[in-house]
Each structure stands twice: as C-alpha cells, then as structure tokens.
Design a protein that fits this description.
It holds the Pfam family dCMP_cyt_deam_1. This is CMP/dCMP-type deaminase domain-containing protein. One of its GO terms (molecular function) is catalytic activity. This protein has a single domain, classed as Cytidine Deaminase, domain 2 (3-Layer(aba) Sandwich), CATH 3.40.140. It has seven helices and five strands, in the order E-E-H-E-H-E-H-H-E-H-H-H. It has a five-stranded mixed beta sheet with strand order 2-1-3-4-5. Helix 1 runs parallel beside helix 2. The longest helix has 25 residues. The chain is globular and about 40 Å long. It binds zinc ion (ZN). The site of zinc ion (ZN) has 6 residues, from helix 2.
Length: 168
C-alpha cells in the first residue's frame, strides 16, 4: 500500500509510468512488479526501451523485484529507503530474511553493480555526491519529510487487519 515505483525516460526525465503495490489483489504485485506490469501494458509503439529508462523505487527492491527489474532489461535502478530502513522503520524484515534464507545473502551483499544493472541508494548519493552543504541539507530535509509521512502512514496502516496479513 505504500511501496511505489516509477519509470522515467533517460532523455528528458519525463514520467513514463508510476504504480504502487497491491498485495491484496496478488502477493506478487509489489510496487516495482506492479509498475513493470503497467509499463508493459502501454502500447508497444509508445513504450520506450527499458535501456532508455530510469527505474526508481521507493524502497530497495526485494529479491522478487530485483529479478523482475533484471528480467525486464532495465540497466539501472534507484531507491530511497534501504532494506535496513524497511526492516527497522516499517517492521518488515522479509526482504532481508528471504535474501538470507533463500539465497544465503547477507544484508547489502548482493551485487549492486553487475552485468545487468547498476543500482544507487539516493541517500548515499546525497551524502557523497552533493558538495554544496546547503543544497545537501535542503534535500535531506525533504527526505526527512517524506520519511515522516511514511512513518505516519505506517502507524495508520498497521492497525488494519488486512495490512497485518499482507505480510508473508
Ligand atoms: Zn519486492
């Protein structure tokens, strides 16, 4: 309900499509997968090549979504909240747990640069790439506001039974 993704054109950063998760309809409709599904529902004539797109996810993709992004042919993705944020702030340890249990993969140890794609943490980029301190603070402040909104939504949603059971 509040995991989302969007796809932009690399050429002009225009929005191609955005979607959010819908686990109540199907447990596979994570934000990223649902966004990719909608992307492929666009008419082929107007749909850009995945190699010409930027893929952005609100949360670091889980193993399902990592595979979906890979199989779809995107050569990049960016995310705001990391797996640890998802575990700690949203009480959802499943991404890391599945990585460990199924793939024997410790937190953060999957290949963030590989044959298929490179991925980027927005928070790391802000920390490491923005030299102007004021600009960095300003962006950080915006991210803090987004984080606060997510926290508020989480507090509301966790009281709904349907949310509790939309976990694994
Ligand atoms: Zn996922």
């Amino acid at each position: 309900m509040f995991y989302g993704a969007f796809i932009l054109k690399k050429s002009d950063l225009s929005l191609v499509i955005t979607e959010m998760n819908n686990k109540l309809e199907c447990p596979l409709w994570h934000g990223e997968v649902n966004c990719i599904r909608r992307f492929y529902e666009l008419p082929k004539e107007t749909r850009p090549n995945t190699k010409d797109c930027i893929f952005f996810s609100s949360h670091e993709p889980c193993s399902l979504c990592l595979s979906a992004i890979t199989w779809s042919g995107f050569d990049n993705f960016y995310y705001l909240f990391g797996h640890e944020d998802t575990r700690d702030s949203f009480e959802m340890p499943h991404d890391l747990k599945i990585m460990k249990e199924v793939f024997n993969c410790e937190p953060g140890s999957y290949n963030k640069k590989n044959f298929y794609w490179k991925c980027y943490s927005l928070k790391d980029m802000i920390k490491n790439c923005i030299e102007d301190e004021n600009e960095r603070k300003e962006i950080q402040e915006r991210i803090n506001k987004i984080s606060k909104k997510y926290e508020e939504m989480f507090q509301i949603m966790k009281n709904y039974d349907s949310f509790k059971f939309s976990y694994l």
